[in-house]
Amino acid sequence: MHNHTHVVMHVDKDMALAWSVNEVLRRYHMLHNGTLLTQKYVKEETLSPGENVSFSETVEVYRSRLYDISWFMCDLNEFKTHTNRKRLRGMGPARTLLNRA
Predict the structure, then answer these.
(1) Which of 2, 16, 65, 84 has the fewest CB atoms below 10 angstroms from its CB?
(2) 31 and 56 both lie in a single domain
């Protein structure tokens, strides 16, 4: 069956909570682009005091997403959808219609 996925996983929340800001951003940016502030931080550009407040909140949101199974499944499903669309786009309309029949 290719309409669902079974996943067995272990989430080490304590480890994720111990990650440095750099580690959180490194891992999150492997999956997502992040915000302009997180990109600015990674480039070692100076953040203003106001940007620092927003940046700190963003890092904690990213950290929680990295150990949240629901977010993992959303990312996985989004990846699968994107991959399937690319595959279907390459098949052409006639081939896609044949596969649906």
Answers:
(1) 2
(2) yes
What whole-number distance in Å separates Cα of residue 96 and Cα of residue 87? 10
Look at the block and give the residue holding tokens 């490194």: 26
| Contact (CB, 8 A) for 37 and 53 | no
Q: Which two tokens stand for residue 50?
A: 């106001």
Those residues of the chain that have pLDDT short of 50 are none
Q: Which residues form the domain of 88?
A: 69-101
What is the pLDDT, as a whole number, of residue 83? 81
- Cβ neighbour number for residue 62 with a 10 Å cutoff: 21
CB within 8 A of 47, min separation 6: which ones? 37, 40, 41, 55
87 and 59, same structural domain? Answer: no
